Amino acid sequence: MLLLSQGEREQWQGLSEDVIVGGRPAGVGPEICPELQPAFRYYMGTLLAAKGRPEEARDWFAAGAAHETVPANAQMLNFLERHGGLVVPGITFSDPRPFAHFAQVPQIRDARENFVKCSSRSLPLFPQPFKVMDIGCGNGEMVVALIEHLRDTGKVSDLGEVLLIDPSAEMLRLAQRNVGMAFPGASIRAFNNRLEVVSNQVQSRYDVAISVLAYHHLPFESKLAHLRSLSKWVDHFIIFEPEGNHDTPELFSPDLAFSVYQMYGRGIEFILSQEAPEEVALSCVDMFMMTEAVSLLTKPRGIRTEYHMMRSQWHELFRRGLRTGFDCLGDFNCYSDEYLDIFALHYGRRAVC
Question: DSSP class of residue 129?
Fold first, then answer.
């Protein structure tokens, strides 16, 4: 993903004050480099929309949509037309179908397959019955795919237990069904709650904990506290996350808007390019991607729902949150382009051969 320099941050902040206070018309002059003008216009559009000035916001989005390689401004124009403002459309994962559609987008499907393959390579052999914890399990497909791949590669023979954790009751029900169908007779435990509630309730040891597009819902300090609680019960942690600068930047900051512009602009582009009925695609955009994006663009840190981090911040989290004996055993690119990176990190206890 692209990042702003300190000078560019200050420039964007100063120009935003001219627009908000002085009513500067849509568009920018030569002070913004051409490559960044669509992203700056997105920043101004989201800022005006968040402050209850949707008509002015539309002008900025329209100016940005005219010349952009990732269609984030065009997406925002469409969203404002359908919703009338920058409002949260719903509760993410209250309906599992939008996420199921997202998971079948070719780029995301390939990234998930890469996650399974890379994780399997970096994990050791488990001669004892395998116990795995899935944090934010969704519909359970990822933990099923990982267990099956570990079995196919000879790293797992017997399945001991699958612990499923998710705040969505509907997602958890699907996960229990999918895991049960894949592994009849397996021991399945389920916690229908958020990680911050569950982390202190785990009282048995697990070989592996995975978290797929889920651990970013906590700010850094909360992630750190719960990772420390869980680390005494787990030998290997593996996360699958998009790289985003959404934790430390404050509300209405250029860095936050620039990161949202890239990550959600690209993600929504993937969704809308996937062949599907219009109502299915728009439901996926609104009830998944835009629900998150609007939270980031309108809610302050501590209240917003998303805290994606840069890869370097994830490494710092694991180094500080895990107990002695853990090392980084894997750092994988699962999908990458100039605007979006999806990666996996594996920290674990390396067995001595």
Answer: P
Nearest to 140 by CA among 169, 110, 108, 178: 178
Per-residue model confidence (pLDDT) at position 353? 43
d(C-alpha 224, C-alpha 216), whole Å? 12
pLDDT, tens only, 323-332: 788 999 999 9
For residue 160, give the 3-state DSSP assignment.
strand
CA distances (Å), 201 to each of 28, 80, 191, in order? 53, 43, 10
DSSP H helices in 218-343: 220-231, 254-273, 278-284, 291-298, 311-321
Using CA atoms, how far apart are residues 334 and 195, in angstroms rounded to an integer? Answer: 24
Q: Which two tokens stand for residue 111?
A: 């990234």
Look-up: residue for tokens 């196919």? 152
Distance CA 114, CA 112 (A): 5
pLDDT for 45-71, tens place per residue? Answer: 999 999 999 999 999 999 999 999 999
DSSP labels for 166-222?
A: -S-HHHHHHHHHHHHHHSTT-EEEEE-S-HHHHTTT--S-EEEEEEES-GGGS-HHH
pTM across the whole model: 0.93
